[in-house]
Amino acid sequence: MKKEEIDDRLMDALLRGDCEEDLAEAARKQSAPQLRTWNWRRSFMAVAAMLVVGVTVGFLTNHGQQTENPGALTTADAMPSVSKEEMVQSAERELARLDAEIAEQREIVEEKRKVLDTIVRITGRPYFEGTVNEAKKDGVVSEGPVGGGYRSGGDVQEELKSASSPPAGTSQAAVDRKSGVTVAGSVNRPGLVAGSGELTLAEAIDLGGGPSTFGTTKRVTIYREGKKYQLSPLTNSAHAQEKLYPGDVVEVDQVKAWEVSGDGFADVKRGAKLRPELQGRFRPSAVEPKKNASSEKYGQLVDQPWKSPLQEALSTFSVDVDTASYTNLRRLIKDGSPVPVDAVRVEELVNYFDYDYAQPAKEEAFGVGLAMATCPWEERHNLVRVALQGKDVNAGERGDANLVFLVDVSGSMQDSDKLPLLVESLGLLVEELQENDRVSLVVYAGSEGVVLEPTRMGQGGREKVFQALKKLSAGGSTNGGAGIKLAYRLAKENFVKGGVNRVILATDGDFNVGTTNRDELVELVKTQAKDGVFLSVCGFGRGNLNDAMLEAITNDGNGVYYYIDSRAEGRRVFLEKLMGTLVTIAKDVKIQVEFNPAKVAQYRLLGYANRVLKKEDFNNDKVDAGDIGSGHQVTAFYEIVPTGVTGTVRPEVDALKYQNEAPAIPQNDSPDWMTVKLRHKKPDGQVSELQEFTLRGEAKPWREMESDYRFAAGVVAWGMTLRDALPGKGELVDSLVRDSVGKDETRKELLELVKAAK
Amino acid sequence: MSSIVAMKEERGTGQPAFGQVAREHQGMMLVYARTLLGDETRAREVVQEALVSAWKGMERFDVTRDVGAWLRGIVRNKWKDVCRRDGRKLEFGDEDLEYLESRMAVFVARPAVFDDLADCREKLPEEMGEVVQLSYDDGMKSEAVAEKLGIAAATVRKRLERARGLLRDCLEGIRG
């Protein structure tokens, strides 16, 4: 037998517990006939002797004298002998400890008294003057200029008079308008918030559910007694700690259309034309941008419109395996919050689910499948599915891992759905690592620091990592920039050639690095990815996740972004999808489709609104795109109007009546509908490889397609419905999803969401 | 050792002292028997038989020897008997038994091992503590645990294995 097996059986035997029954008694009974009779007298004497001895020893000990010769007494073995000196010392230690405790309590009381004094001082005076002057003196509140676009105090008050009732679960008694603070603007739960005693600005925003998808706490307005003050809790921790008073109204701002991810607020003047290289990187905004007088469009701000191959034969986009939109959506719907149109990234919804795609051929990084059926929501159209399946790398096949956990431990991480969930999720990951994998832990908050040097999993290392994770506690403000540099340095120093080198950033999105350093950081992430150190970003908590910084880092495709809102999701990301999370099998994956105008009159790409590339970007290896991890799947849909089908799509501009400008439909012999080209780089490669696939044949009736296809189409349709891009198809969406759910739990969950979101 | 002295001195009646010794060591004997046999029922049977023999053979026991080892020796003999009776192969060879004996000395020589084990269990990561509790305290089989937690049965077994390893390290740390 192996030693490990023996040890394991021994541990198993120990874990089954102690012996509860008296086996000796049972044994005695079993041998009863052979036992001598119980000698009562001797037993009594023995017991009496023990009692006497016990009392004597006790007596002697209390009087601080040594007991005599312990060896002679059976029970004396169990009694410690304590000298007088030892007793005095022990008492002194106890007193010292109590003194320390008292001193600590005194300090706490002092602090509380100071705070109370300040409050009395402030609120005792005529409200307005006292607060403003007091606050100004402390330099905490700035009466900054408020530009257009911010609603005036009057509007807000008006809106709030008819505001929603207090958050569910709070009794009216608890939330009295006089004692409550109102949180409004781009938050998840606008309305009165109940606080116990004092509320800080950060707490109030948190109670309001945090900023909604496009809200930001970079600019927060406090309305107080008819005046408004602008604070920046995200960048200024003093502002975040600003105390709020009854009757205050807090308004959380919204990101504006012209603010581009990866660029700072300060750098772009409102209304300015975007630099050409920034176009195409917009985040869709709830506020439609003003169109310029010229025909120049602002990149791909909205969903891809219908296009004709005669005008634009090529459709180019970057793959995306992020699924944050789905998990975010799920949360919004479950919370009963309204779903902003632009929170819905259709491709991320489709890609959240698992499909039965064929594994690629042995040497290939991934396989590509093309399928075409009639379009469920417009049967005269066709719906083409492009499916990528990344190679599955088995646990034993991957190289050794070199992981750096970069953990945000700022004060806002304290909630139960943040740091504790984070520690648990990372713990799941650590548990699955192998002996030679290495983990280090870096924290950032105020200052940054290495909490745990790179530690191998074997020989107790794993336990060390667990302990280090458990010790993490939240406090301090955020200073992410220095932390991420440190994390990368650590990763570089312990680089494993041919292995998995990754920085895993865990944060609640409150990732402040200061505007001037933002570009620098995005560059850092890109450069490191070129050298083979990749980034995963895990968002925790509700609300704060939409920070422009996170988007900037992950949008260029050099990082993968997960949103972990529950233990189940944590398990999914770190256990089931672990290989995909850790191992990148292909970098900078781009797709370019050329449509044959002889067969395709119009086409549109569904989703990937953020991922569109210029046609030159396809062959340009310098342009970054998405990465694919082990086992990842990517699904994209094109809706196609075949030539000869008319009247199904309203054109943007009607055809001219008096001039014939319609080009003739070209004829060619090709049976192809389209050619799909794919470029990718090996994880540590610099030059991309090209693959080509063509689509031929006739569209199958969609009802005859396998459930994966129908389900994915259902998800796309649902996403488009939520974006108001597919009106009146609610029934169809329902049946598409329902009929293809099967036994998959995650798919069933979607069905629930579809029902709930109506 | 003092209990043995008392036992010898009480040889006349024997019962109280023997009872004390037995109670002191029965946990250890049961753990040993479980390791050898795997099966709980058989393990208890073996321990009981061993105690009967111990009682009978107590007078022949040499007081300078280690009681624990002596009792384990008896358990071993009973284990062999039971295996022979049931027609099962002996899973532990001589080398294995020697190794096991050395491990017993580390882990189970003192009765407080179960307290130490409880302390070590506290330190387990929650995921592992969970499966340990369900499997051992609640007596659930891997499949049932897997169903309850929504994970694969194989994951449950792996987790248990890992947990046992951690606990072993921890116990060694306390007593080693």
Automatic annotation (TrEMBL), chain A:
<feature type="domain" description="VWFA">
    <location>
        <begin position="402"/>
        <end position="582"/>
    </location>
</feature>
<feature type="region of interest" description="Disordered">
    <location>
        <begin position="139"/>
        <end position="177"/>
    </location>
</feature>
<dbReference type="InterPro" id="IPR036465">
    <property type="entry name" value="vWFA_dom_sf"/>
</dbReference>
<dbReference type="InterPro" id="IPR021908">
    <property type="entry name" value="YfbK_C"/>
</dbReference>
<dbReference type="Pfam" id="PF00092">
    <property type="entry name" value="VWA"/>
</dbReference>
<feature type="coiled-coil region">
    <location>
        <begin position="81"/>
        <end position="115"/>
    </location>
</feature>
<dbReference type="InterPro" id="IPR051266">
    <property type="entry name" value="CLCR"/>
</dbReference>
<dbReference type="InterPro" id="IPR019554">
    <property type="entry name" value="Soluble_ligand-bd"/>
</dbReference>
<dbReference type="Pfam" id="PF10531">
    <property type="entry name" value="SLBB"/>
</dbReference>
<feature type="transmembrane region" description="Helical">
    <location>
        <begin position="44"/>
        <end position="61"/>
    </location>
</feature>
<dbReference type="Pfam" id="PF12034">
    <property type="entry name" value="YfbK_C"/>
</dbReference>
<dbReference type="InterPro" id="IPR002035">
    <property type="entry name" value="VWF_A"/>
</dbReference>
<keyword id="KW-1133">Transmembrane helix</keyword>
<feature type="compositionally biased region" description="Polar residues">
    <location>
        <begin position="162"/>
        <end position="173"/>
    </location>
</feature>
<keyword id="KW-0812">Transmembrane</keyword>
<dbReference type="Pfam" id="PF12450">
    <property type="entry name" value="vWF_A"/>
</dbReference>
<protein>
    <recommendedName>
        <fullName>VWFA domain-containing protein</fullName>
    </recommendedName>
</protein>
<keyword id="KW-0472">Membrane</keyword>
<keyword id="KW-0175">Coiled coil</keyword>
<dbReference type="InterPro" id="IPR022156">
    <property type="entry name" value="Uncharacterised_YfbK_N"/>
</dbReference>
